[in-house]
Amino acid sequence: MTDVKPTIESVPGFKVAGVHCGLKDSDALDFALIYSDRPCVAAGVFTTNQVKAAPVLVDQERLQKNPTSIRAVAINTKCANACTGQQGIDNALQTARWVSERLGCSEDEVLVMSTGVIGTQLPMDKIRRGVDLAVDALGDNNWEDAARAIMTTDTRPKMASTTLSTLEGKTSQVAGIAKGAGMIAPNMATLLGLIVTDAGITREKLYESLTSAVDFTFNSIVVDGDMSTNDTILMLANGASGTVFEEGFYSGWLCHRLAKDIVQDAEGATKLIRINVYGTSDHKSAKQIANAIATSPLVKTAFYGGDANWGRIIAAVGRSGISVEPEQMALWLKPGDGSSPSEGLLLFLDGMPEPYDEMRASEIMKLENITISLVCGSGEGQATVLTCDLSHDYVSINGHYRT
Amino acid sequence: MTDVKPTIESVPGFKVAGVHCGLKDSDALDFALIYSDRPCVAAGVFTTNQVKAAPVLVDQERLQKNPTSIRAVAINTKCANACTGQQGIDNALQTARWVSERLGCSEDEVLVMSTGVIGTQLPMDKIRRGVDLAVDALGDNNWEDAARAIMTTDTRPKMASTTLSTLEGKTSQVAGIAKGAGMIAPNMATLLGLIVTDAGITREKLYESLTSAVDFTFNSIVVDGDMSTNDTILMLANGASGTVFEEGFYSGWLCHRLAKDIVQDAEGATKLIRINVYGTSDHKSAKQIANAIATSPLVKTAFYGGDANWGRIIAAVGRSGISVEPEQMALWLKPGDGSSPSEGLLLFLDGMPEPYDEMRASEIMKLENITISLVCGSGEGQATVLTCDLSHDYVSINGHYRT
Questions:
Q1: For residues B184 and B106, which has the higher predicted lDDT (pLDDT)?
Q2: Mutate which of A365, A393, A395 to disrupt the B interface (most B C-beta within 10 Å)?
Q3: Structural contact between residues B150 and B179, judged by C-beta atoms closer than 8 angstroms
Q4: Looking at beta carbons, which residues of chain B come within 8 Å of A331?
Q5: Option in A87, A226, A316 nearest B226 (CB)
Q6: Cα gap B370→B338, rounded to integer Å
Q7: Is pTM, for the whole model, over 0.90?
Q8: Whole-angstrom Cα distance, residue B21 to residue B30?
Q9: How many CB atoms lie within 10 A of CB B350?
């Protein structure tokens, strides 16, 4: 396992800024800009929601036409620029144009991301101010500002960095920021993430590095099962280190760290729950079962209340759409990340409840870090999904999100 | 529209009881028995969850083998008798056997239903007491006791009755009780319901009457999207009125009343929300879209908070799995049951937000009865789904359900 740090010092060739332009009522940071002093190879994964925000549509087109010379990414909070029609597209394009004018690059070289309330137009006077302030503030070491500036209901910035090595021992830096909090569902690159590296890499290998990591990181976390209109993960490689990764590189550990941070800081979350599913016919089936458990409001509220109501887990498995036989199933509750199997409690075996120590179950359910392990049969398929509980605070936060 | 009453006086030939046998800690009623003095034609619809409770498996088999001479139904709360293996089956059969011994009928003529916590065995000493007490308490007018005895987190009993008429003006009675509260998902006969009539009808017509009503009543309500292991709706016809319904009868109004009661009394619900979807290619697509909206935690919390955050509705539509074009969509928010279209607020049209009066939207969102109308295109498909909001109380109730 590569050592991944929760901070970012600097990544050669990249300058960043996070500023306050008035989108948030307080003086909190609300506009971020990431700039590379040379063209970047770029890759992106986007929401599969049919209702896509304007910045998603703009970025998808630009990455298609222009995947090897991206220079900047501008990100705003508070307004998702989704369900905003042609005016929304025009506003996204104008944002990129302003960035390109100030940075002296082509507007096709600028990507945009937005997050926040759906169905309102971007306040373009504030966006204009954000562009100007951010360009002026660009620096090597402002990653935490940028990570803060993309937060919505996140309570803390999400950053990670690590070092990549070729087989010959040459290195490059890779770093990423992300925001999460709510509207996080299976089968999508969740909410916003931006990963940069000074590695040299082809467009194809970069895309492969991103997509291979996403399936079991950003696409294996669940907060509430709602799928956003804006989810985007971008990856930029500027080659400034001079190290070329001909076979690509592995970004899974970095993505995992960011994805886990998102679940731990999800709206109202008090517990991180790891769901391991084994013994299905294939990975996809295991993931579908894990997602059924992870999206169940009854399972999530039971974890919040610390009640080892495991019958709800089995009921969720039964409606997952994957064929299962209760008589072939086994379910364990384990403390922590579940890596000490001997500490686990066997709750259900061969279609029958197992006698188990309710006191010990209660102790485990009180932890902030809990693992469920479910065996469904003798197949080779397995999957792990991270999720959180459903708390009073989730309801409070989302009952009044716009107000 | 037939006049449906929220009470049940008596249905000729049926005797009922609701008693306390110790399943609930308080002295609340917890065991119900329904008995017919002559054999009944019977029909049932059951959960589609692959993990089926023991009473579901027993009833399915008995209705298959013996659909025209059912004499009694025994129902207990607090224990779902699900995930209980062969012992669970044996306990369900023993319950029916005790009932048959006391009533002097064959054990194959007795059905059983259970609701409550999954994964514990029935306490058979209490069940034995319940059978004895209930047989002793059987009477013509104890329908409210029976309705109370099947409640779990329901706050009030759910009953309805009405009169059926043949074209010639001959009549019969039909009456039903139900319980709901949580673990209620689309595409299932939700939780427990029992409908009885003194009409004469064939097995085929009775089944048709039940299934045709279920699709847009019990299968068109959503509380939390979780699908129970125990859901069962049974319908019994004993022919005591002497009126034979050769063409069957329509039970939709009665079922609608019970289904609506379930949503209004759902766990923690403060609002009844009617979701009308129009303009899809067919009914199934419209229902799938309505269900995506109805199961969205973000939509449900926004309703709880009284926030007209309509972008979440559109985002839910976009991930419903049904092909939609935002540019063809229109969304209205309406007070009450939405039958006065002129009072509605147009929020979204042709892919763009409509300017609307936020004060008026807030007024509507404060009501206990709200309608969303969504047009998706120009198709003929439409569907209505009833749902409720997701409140702090839902989290409280389900965080500590077993304790």
A1: B106
A2: A395
A3: yes
A4: none
A5: A316
A6: 7
A7: no
A8: 7
A9: 12
